[in-house]
Amino acid sequence: MVGTAEAAAPPAIVRNEKDGRFETEDKQAFLQYHLRDVTVLAVEGGQAKEKKKTAMDMVHTYVPRRKRGLGLAGHLCVAAFTHAQRNSMIVIPTCSYVSDTFLPRNPLWNSLVYKEERKSSGTL
């Protein structure tokens, strides 16, 4: 049963800060991101105020054909969302895999998603 335990072990995902990617150790599967400053409305002392926040714009997820169906894209997303959460970032799910597949399957992460209504319209 050793083979079963090894197959069930999640893959090691590393953050490549220089290239703006979360990737598998062999660098073949990755989630590409860009950090952006965004303006959100925050309530402080009962008043809405504009506040700058860092957003992780998840722009592309790639898994090579021979490694598809193993859950790697999901593991990459979990690593990226966990990093965003731990660093008080919000997420912009530009990548269609993130927005159309990962988030519907993992709705607990929706609280980190940058929504249009969070944007400031310039008036309070």
From TrEMBL:
InterPro entries assigned: Acyl_CoA_acyltransferase, Gcn5-rel_NAT, GNAT_YJDJ
Superkingdom, taxonomy of origin: Eukaryota
Domain N-acetyltransferase: 14-114
SUPFAM superfamilies: Acyl-CoA N-acyltransferases (Nat)
Protein name: Acetyltransferase At1g77540 isoform X2
Source species: Phoenix dactylifera (Date palm)
Gene: LOC103701269
